[in-house]
Amino acid sequence: MENQQAPPSELFYNLKPLSTNKIPSLVTIDSSVSSHPWKPDQFTEVCTVNGTHGIIAEKPEGCIVGFVLGRSVADEFEITKIAVAEACKRKGIGSRLIKAIIKQASSSGAAHIYLEVGSKNTAAIKLYEKNGFYTQYTRKKYFTNNSDDALVMSLKLR
What gap in Å lies between CA 99 and CA 115, rounded to an integer? Predict the structure, then answer.
């Protein structure tokens, strides 16, 4: 039997739990790729709340290339933010982050995972659908300046 190796794009980073000293890197990535970036204090607030889960994708030399944040409340879990550095997109990082946060949500006892995504963000919608999420409903003119609707997507875990 032949040895199976991870695709080259997956060899250059590791998934790790988020620590608050990594917040500046999250802010940098988020502000460079998000149409609705968070402010540094929003990251700090979210990352210090009980029930928050965070995972980073990090190169061996310590450079963060992506992250996902979520929170658990009772038997529900919400993915609050996910971002991958522009230069690292379409290399499987987002999918690995989603799979890892789904695993954490399941371990925390969640029955469902929810997220909101801009209706015009077709790449993200495809990523979520590929990982089992489906659209539940639309929040019209949800984002700043009524620039986009939000799709509320969910995944049933049990």
Answer: 14
Burial letters for 55-86: b for 16+ Cβ neighbours within 10 Å, e otherwise?
bbbbeeeeebbbbbbbbbeeebbbbbbbbbbe
Residues of 116-138 as b/e, b for ≥16 C-beta within 10 angstroms? ebbbebeebbebbeebebeeeee
How much is the pLDDT for 3?
Answer: 35
Domains and CATH numbers, the chain: 8-115 (3.40.630.30)
Cα separation of 139 and 61, whole Å?
41
**Residues 20, 48: contact at Cβ < 8 Å?**
yes
Average pLDDT rounded to a whole number, residues 77-105: 93
pLDDT of 25 > 50? The answer is yes
For residue 11, pLDDT over 70 is answered with no
